[in-house]
């Protein structure tokens, strides 16, 4: 998998020498699975809070291209609805361990055949294997 970002401490990414805290500074807003283009997009928007730096990006899009594996698990946000918007961890994870969807590894870059997993606070899992994972940022 080719990427234009690195994972930092499983809650953030490094993009063009900039630390982006996905857990604290961004809310998940949409998942779009475009089978016709064989792409998946995950969209995040800057959260509202006094702790978010003024110069933080307003929106992030993870564009996953040439998808060859996708797994989605819905979470349970009945008790804490805000947890559906909050990313818990982001990780590259070995594709030969697809029965494990609740764990993460500490690695910055994908190894050959790794999946990219997004684990949300409400238990939602988005797991994708693709040729390219591109992070697009909007000021």
Automatic annotation (TrEMBL):
Lineage: superkingdom: Bacteria
Protein name per its UniProtKB record: Beta-lactamase-inhibitor-like PepSY-like domain-containing protein
Organism for this UniProt entry: Rufibacter sediminis
């Amino acid at each position: 998998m080719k990427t234009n970002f690195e994972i930092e401490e499983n809650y953030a990414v490094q993009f063009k020498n900039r630390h982006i805290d996905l857990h604290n500074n961004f809310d998940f807003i949409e998942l779009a699975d475009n089978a016709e283009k064989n792409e998946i997009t995950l969209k995040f928007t800057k959260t509202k809070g006094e702790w978010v730096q003024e110069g933080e990006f307003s929106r992030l899009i993870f564009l996953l291209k040439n998808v060859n594996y996708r797994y989605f698990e819905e979470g349970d946000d009945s008790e804490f609805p805000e947890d559906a918007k909050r990313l818990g961890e982001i990780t590259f994870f070995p594709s030969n361990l697809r029965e494990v969807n609740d764990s993460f590894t500490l690695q910055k870059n994908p190894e050959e055949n790794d999946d990219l997993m997004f684990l949300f606070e409400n238990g939602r899992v988005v797991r994708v294997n693709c040729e390219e994972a591109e992070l697009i940022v909007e000021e």
